[in-house]
TrEMBL record:
Organism in which the protein naturally occurs: Arxiozyma heterogenica
The name this protein goes by in its record: OBG-type G domain-containing protein
Keywords on record: GTP-binding, Nucleotide-binding
GO cellular component: cytoplasm
PROSITE patterns: G_OBG
Chain ranges of the OBG-type G domain: 5-275
Length: 413
């Protein structure tokens, strides 16, 4: 993943994708109750919440990120999100706006599948009652699989001929096919390594192809389920069913995207004090000096939200769902500073202005080259206390994730 990570938000129409996206961003994706309300894939910046390095050294008040923000030691790091709308059963064969959306999907590194657990919308997003959302999890995965399989099978004859003629490894042959999805050889290898007794590629039948594609999907499109609309009275029984069936296969987070949008809006207007990702909401009743008064209806709505969502589940879940999705990508924050003793940047006043997300296992040298490019010579790398870090040293959270790069002077030509 040399480029910035991208998290795709998928799900059937009206599951709540745009609402979730709105709750994670400040972008105003069109939110509507109608299928295909979102016609164009909607890219936006979400903010991943992490405990910032400033809180380790008690400098929360001086922390001023160049991108995103930091509040009381909770840093919000920008991360790209993609609203992939309009997936319906049969999308792989062009139903709905199928192929277009599946093509958009190929850019995503991980997926958040928004599942409507209220049971009030059918597989196509139309209003109904008592719908079983277990089916949505199955068909959506099948659509992605059938799309990849279709692309593979269309060329299978020539793939096999070339594979045998060139005596390529299976990894190389599959990587040549899966490269268009942004796959890396290591992903293909990990997928293949999980399959026991894999025959030579020229002997694969449809069943083997399906098994391979299923394992590849786990690598390329790892998925977290956002069990959305938990504020709805019918949600509980559906959530239990899904958890029972899928808890071994998928990470899951219970969410109420609409609640998060509502709370963030009130917070912005200074009606409430609300810490995103928590159950804590203060109103004018708690702090009449600081918070604007709210009318009785809204106060009652907030009480209902506390009972139905916040106190029952601990939060609206949206902060956590992005954390889980990023967790699937195994990303960790690295802080780069000019001065390793004061943690300041060029302006000398604020700490930890720069922070990037890197793949766990990255080395200090790789981080340096990702930030500074290949045209500079890194003379030395230091971490907290001025301790030297080797270019080959793996970045470990809390140990050497605060780095300062000293560059060798450019030689005059
Ligand atoms: N009760 C409840 N309703 C929600 C929640 N999240 C979204 N909704 C509602 O569900 C409807 C559809 O939401 P959208 O966000 O437009 O759904 P979408 O998945 O983006 O739909 P398309 O754009 O058609 O793909 C809207 O009326 C939302 O207000 C939730 O957490 N709880």
């Amino acid at each position: 993943m040399a480029r910035d990570p991208l998290i795709g938000i998928v799900g059937k129409p009206s599951a709540g994708k745009s609402t979730l996206l709105n709750s994670l961003t400040d972008a105003n994706a069109a939110v509507g109750a109608f299928p295909f309300c979102t016609i164009d894939p909607n890219k936006a910046t979400g903010y991943l919440q992490v405990t910032c390095a400033c809180s380790r050294i008690g400098k929360e008040s001086l922390c001023k990120p160049n991108y995103g923000w930091c509040e009381s030691g909770k840093r919000h790091i920008p991360i790209a999100l993609l609203d992939v709308a309009g997936l319906v059963p049969g999308a792989h064969s062009g139903r709905g706006l199928g192929n277009k959306f599946l093509d958009d999907l190929r850019h995503a590194d991980a997926l958040i599948h928004v599942v409507d657990v209220s049971g009030t919308t059918d597989a196509e997003g139309k209003n109904t009652r008592g719908y079983d959302p277990l089916y949505d999890i199955e068909w959506l995965q099948d659509e992605i699989r059938l799309w990849i399989e279709g692309n593979l099978k269309r060329r299978w004859g020539s793939i096999v001929r070339k594979h045998t003629a060139t005596k390529s490894s299976i990894v190389d042959t599959l990587q040549a096919q899966f490269g268009g999805y942004g796959s890396l050889p290591v992903m293909v290898k990990r997928a293949l390594d999980r399959i026991e007794d894999l025959p030579p590629l020229e002997n694969w039948d449809d069943e083997w192809i399906t098994r391979v594609v299923k394992e590849f999907m786990k690598e390329k499109f790892p998925m977290v389920l956002a069990l959305n609309k938990i504020d709805h009275p019918d949600a509980d029984k559906n959530v239990s069913k899904i958890m029972l069936r899928y808890q071994k296969e998928h990470k899951m987070v219970i969410t109420s995207a609409v609640t998060e949008v509502f709370l963030r809006r009130l917070k912005k207007q200074n009606y409430i004090r609300y810490e995103e990702g928590t159950e804590f909401v203060d109103t004018c009743e708690d702090d009449p000096d600081q918070l604007k008064p709210l009318d009785e209806n809204v106060l009652q709505k907030i009480d209902k939200i506390r009972d139905l969502v916040l106190y029952r589940f601990g939060s609206t879940g949206v902060v956590q769902v992005l954390q889980e999705a990023t967790g699937l990508l195994d990303l960790i924050p690295v802080y780069t500073v000019k001065n390793i003793h004061t943690f300041t940047g060029n302006d000398g006043n604020h700490v930890f202005k720069d922070c990037i997300l890197v793949k766990r296992g990255s080395t200090a040298g790789e981080v340096g080259r990702a930030i500074l490019g290949n045209n500079v010579t890194i003379a030395a790398i230091e971490t907290v206390g001025g301790v030297r870090v080797g270019e080959d040293a793996r970045i470990e959270e809390g140990e050497n994730d605060i780095l300062s790069f000293k560059l060798a002077p450019r030689s005059k030509e």
